[in-house]
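Consider this one:
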Amino acid sequence: MAMAAIPALRTAFLGALLALAAAHDARAQSFAAPRTGVLALRATYGERGTEIPDDLVWRVYAVRGTDAQLVQETAAPRPSFVLQAGLYAVHVSHGLATATRQFNVGETGAVSTIAINAGALTVSGYLGVPERPIAPARQKLQVFIPTANNSEGKFVTDALRAGARLMLPEGTYHLVSTYSGSNSVVRSDVRIETGRVTEAIVNHRAATMTLKLVRERGGVALAGAEWTIETPGGDIVAEAAGAFPSVDVAEGTYNVLARHNDRDYRGQMKVEGGINRDFEIVVE
């Protein structure tokens, strides 16, 4: 064999060794790489309802023995999670309604639907006769779950605003509406059904009264007066101070006390729902 051929053989032999080593490393890396699968999900209103298109939050927890660790989270309506093969718990929320399911993810992945038993509640508020819409900022709404002997047994939320939509789990709820921080409170029970919107209409009978302490009817209001408004039974429903403060009170008849310069002046005030007006006490 010619001496010139020896370097070429040596180069070819080294190239073959390097190729074998590279192939071995690739196989080792393929064995070491974790197996992954894709978990594609969507949510529906109940088992046979329509798909929920928005307002979803998905959380995926890896289940390892008795521990569960959050691994991914998204607000996408139809998420696809790339996960290592193993057991997972998926929690999805739609407003205040939730659902949880477990999945065993393999290399091929899975496509699944999670049903949420949820419906919506909307509230419209009206004042007086004829009825006028109440500005959402002047209406406080609270939602409760009734218990055996208490319609307000379990507090749910006070974040609902008139005209907005609140997603709730299917069931019966107790709605409490308060007009502008006054003693005008309306209570009602509402039923939430999966996939449906429950519209609650609340009618308040209240008015805004402007208080004035005057020396004669229609006269200038005296400054520095302190006011207390009470029911006929003596319960205080509002207090105020100033020359002409405004107070919101429910329809009815009230006893009014005005204190000015260490003297007390009394009057009786009649309130009609939806009729805002002045109420005067004349200093005698």
In short: The mean pLDDT is 89. The first strand starts at residue 36 and ends at 45.
